[in-house]
């Protein structure tokens, strides 16, 4: 099925192409839409959703139909890697299994100008105090949302040369020969989930907070 790109933005400008979407890191587990908004300040112990950003600060790029092949930890179920829409992969390492995320709709929300948006956030005394209290923190500059997504285990079929075709599992044999369901244990209680995120670290330059380089998604481990 061909992907149909569409844009929802508060600004009347030329439509954005899905090709400009940056690489987003996969979250260890999907979160409900309202749990991880773009513009959030995040640390391992605290999260703050500033109120100073407006609709015009964001761009939204929507695509109909989404598929992602993922790797997850067999013991914990935590997602560890995103392989995109690949139809074949190499055999996962021991303790790691393959799965898939499929959704009829996905949307990537990005800040039009992350540095300018961060300066707007700093207009809030609450945000400035939060940053003082959270030394190792980041600023969410992009997220990927999926609507009505299904999360399933994948069955790998050996196609030779060390490659394995990825097929959605419909129930199979788990450890000890016991039957297991195909669904991955994802519970967000939300129609729309956040599965990917782009975060830039917060640094202090010249005594003032500023945005640094992209950082890992450890704030949601």
Number of strand segments: 15
Order of helices and strands: EEEEEEEEHHEEEEEEE
Distance between the termini: 34 Å
Strand content: over 45%
Count of individual domains: 1
Q: Which structural category do the helix and sheet elements fall into?
A: mainly beta
Averaged pLDDT: 88
List the total number of helices: 2
Q: Uncertain regions: pLDDT < 50 for 5+ in a row?
A: 1-13
Integer-rounded radius of gyration: 19 Å
| Biggest β-sheet description | 13 strands, antiparallel
Region (Disordered): 1-20, 168-187
What does this 3D model show about the protein?
The chain is mainly beta. It has one domain (23-220). Helix content is 8%, strand content 49%. It has two helices and 15 strands. The protein has helices at 114-121, 125-133, and strands spanning 4-7, 25-32, 41-42, 47-48, 58-73, 79-82, 88-90, 96-111, 138-147, 150-160, 163-168, 172-173, 179-180, 192-205, 208-215. Strands 1, 2, 3, 4, 5, 6, 7, 8, 9, 10, 11, 14 and 15 form a 13-stranded antiparallel sheet that branches. A two-stranded antiparallel sheet has the order 12-13. Strand 12 and strand 13 form a beta hairpin. The longest helix is centred in the middle third of the chain and has 9 residues, at 125-133. The radius of gyration is 19 Å and the shape is elongated. The two termini are 34 Å apart. 29% of the residues are buried. Residues 1-13 have low confidence and may be disordered.
């Amino acid at each position: 099925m061909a992907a149909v790109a569409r844009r929802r933005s508060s600004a009347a400008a030329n439509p954005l192409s899905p090709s400009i979407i940056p690489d987003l890191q996969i979250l260890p587990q999907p979160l409900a839409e309202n749990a991880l908004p773009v513009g959030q300040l995040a640390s391992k112990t605290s999260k703050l959703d500033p109120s100073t950003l407006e609709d015009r600060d964001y761009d939204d790029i929507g695509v109909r139909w989404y598929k992602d092949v993922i790797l997850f930890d067999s013991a914990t179920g935590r997602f560890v890697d995103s392989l995109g829409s690949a139809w074949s992969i190499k055999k996962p390492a021991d303790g790691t299994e393959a799965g898939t995320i499929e959704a009829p709709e996905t949307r990537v929300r990005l800040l039009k100008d992350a540095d300018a948006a961060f300066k707007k956030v700093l207009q809030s005394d609450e945000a400035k105090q939060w940053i003082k209290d959270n030394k190792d923190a980041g600023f969410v500059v992009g997220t990927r949302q999926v609507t009505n997504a299904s999360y399933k285990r994948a069955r790998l079929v050996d196609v030779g040369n060390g490659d394995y075709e990825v097929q959605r599992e419909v129930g199979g044999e788990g450890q000890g020969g016991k039957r297991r369901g195909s669904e991955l244990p994802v519970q967000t209680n939300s129609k729309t989930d956040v599965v990917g995120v782009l975060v830039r670290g917060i640094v202090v330059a010249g005594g003032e907070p500023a945005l640094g380089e992209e950082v890992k998604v450890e704030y949601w481990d």
